[in-house]
Amino acid sequence: MQVRESFTISEIAQALGAEAVGDVDFSIAAASEPATAGPDDLALALDEQHAQKLGDGRAQAAMVWQGADWQALGLKAAIIVTRPRYAMSGLTALMDRGPQIAPGIHPSAVIDPSAQIGPGAAIGPLVVIGPDARIGARARIASHVSVGAEAELAEDVLLYSGVRIGARVRIGARFIGQPGAVVGSDGFSFVTPEKSSVEQARDSLGTEVERTVQSWMRIHSLGTVEIGDDVELGANSTIDRGTIRATRIGRGCKIDNLVQIGHNVEIGEDCLLCGLVGVAGSVRIGNRVVLAGQCGVSDNIFIGDDVVAGGGTKIYSNAPAGRVLLGSPAVKMETEIEIRKALRRLPRMRKQLAQLQKTVSEQTQKD
Fold first, then answer.
1. Are the C-beta atoms of residues 106 and 122 closer than 8 Å to each other?
2. Domain 7-95 class, CATH top level
3. Of 14, 243, 286, 342, which sits 20 to 30 A from 99 (CA to CA)?
4. How far is Cα 265 from Cα 258, in angstroms, rounded to an integer?
5. Catalytic-labelled residue, pool 50, 144, 220, 263
6. How confident is the model over 151-161, as a mean pLDDT?
């Protein structure tokens, strides 16, 4: 992949579908925050607050918001965008150098003779590709990646260093796996010959369990993982294969770092799972669901379309479509906010109650 060293203001604006003003042939080498921008940088003055920092840097060009007086900001050129944060996605895609992987197959890669490598693929050092695996066209695979037997990767996949793709996993087009991501590890599923302490606790809802010797036997994962097109998986995140059927991740899902998705989970399309989310086995998640950082989802429940769960939310039961959740256990966000307000008032209320008790006691003694 050829790396561009610079872009003109006109080229950037055209790529973003934005308006270019001033010296549109001015050349940009990099993007920068306003306060640290050099003379060849494009400063990201996306609102008035950021624009105030332009004087601390040396930017001659900037990306600015609709209606900004770019000349009054002392700029030589500007790109005017209507939705600044959305424009950031296009700008960063244009300027991202990505991992530099030489075209073709590195001599140190170990590729089984039965594997199929698509045209235009770039495979880096010390990559291992197993028997009957299929790698799509223009795939880019960085160093120390392993792809298991019979795995299928569609076109334009990008795997960063250290990614592990298990056997028989199927991954759609334009998948991005960040360093250390694992797809297709065994599910965490164990059983005891007799009813385990966990089963006893679940049946009794908290009554003390019978103390007995128990040994855990693995339920092996015979299923696989199926991932749709345009999915991204963050660094050191894991997706377990299903026990019998496949664990499924729908098209367009974006999964952050350190996320754990258990066996048999089914996730719909265009979902967003932020860092440290944990989804237990056999959960079904609808479309466009957002789980903020450190959310936890209990096993064998359903989360409806368009649910949004705030950071740290713990979801123990089914969540209806469109619900906005917060707290542990999860409740409507508006309810959780009232709960937290009440908690902050508890010390004061305790003092008031103590005073009231004292007053009543004194009055009783008088009577």
1. no
2. alpha beta
3. 14
4. 17
5. 263
6. 98
